[in-house]
Structures are given as structure tokens and as C-alpha cells.
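thread: overnight batch results

M.L. [08:02]
morning all. the overnight job finished for the chain we discussed friday. pasting input first so we're all looking at the same thing
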Amino acid sequence: MMSQTGDRNQRALVVGAMAAAVILLLTYVVTPWVEVRQRLEKLEGQLSAAGGESVREQAYRLRLARAVPAFAMPGGEDAQRLRFLRSFSEQVKQAGLGLAGMPQYRGQSPVEGDLGVKLLRLECQGKCKVAQALDVLARLYENPDLVAVEEMALRCVSDNREDWELSLTVSTFAEQEEGS
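M.L. [08:03]
and the structure it wrote out:
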């Protein structure tokens, strides 16, 4: 008889403790969270009414901007070559790379599919430090005409481990003429 009463009391204490835990959870965690969410939705509504674009749309646009930082539609072959050469040379100069001559175009190839563009490859070589090479690679994606880094080679050329030789091939699109 005694053990049965003890079990009941024990169960009552466990159920009471669980109920107290649920009440505390609702009071101190769930209710403030719901209030914060309501306040956030209200502020989002005010921002979207003022700006015309919701916060979620702005966040989506920012994610896209990070994935594709810059893009320009390709022009004719000659204009595109010159524009890409200028922007690429400026980036190389900002990084402080010592190029051995001007960057040279190394061939072109049609792009698979019917896109109406062809791929132009620009190759350059020069001496640099590793930090300069990494700086060029980090900034290349700011170039709106860049399609891809096709090849990159970094070789130590002397006993001085700070001097490196960089060979870099990058590519861009150019409009394909109707006849080709």
C-alpha cells in the first residue's frame, strides 16, 4: 500500500515539474520570440512600403550580386578585345605585377550551342610576388568582361623565394559575326 502511494506522489511531482517547465518555456522563450517576429514583420512592411522592394527581394539581389559581381554584354570582336585588354591591364597594374610585354590574345573558339558569341583568350606572363598574384586573382572577378580564368601557373624562378613567375590565361566573350 505504501509503495503505491509513493509512486503516485512521485508521478505527480514529475508531471508538475514538466508543467512548470512548459510554462516557463512559453513565458520566457516562445512569447518574446513571437513578439520579435511580429515587430520584424511590421518593420519589413514599413520598409517595403517606403522602398517598393521587400527586404527578402533586396537580400536575394545582394546574393546574386555576390555570385556575379559584374557583367557586361560582349561587343564586336575588335571592340571587345580592346575593352577587355584595357580593363585587364589596369587590374594587373593596380596589383603591381611586372609583365614581360603586353598581354597577347591566344586564339579564339566558338562557344557550344547557338549563343552567337565566341571565346577570346588573353595570355600574360610576368614576375611577381605571391601576394601580388593572389591580389590579381581576387580582383579579376570585378572585371565585367571576364568569363573565366582558363590557366594559371606560378613558378619559383630563382634562389630568392619571393620572386615568382606568373603565367595567366583569361577569357572573354565577343559577338560572333553573322558570316562566321
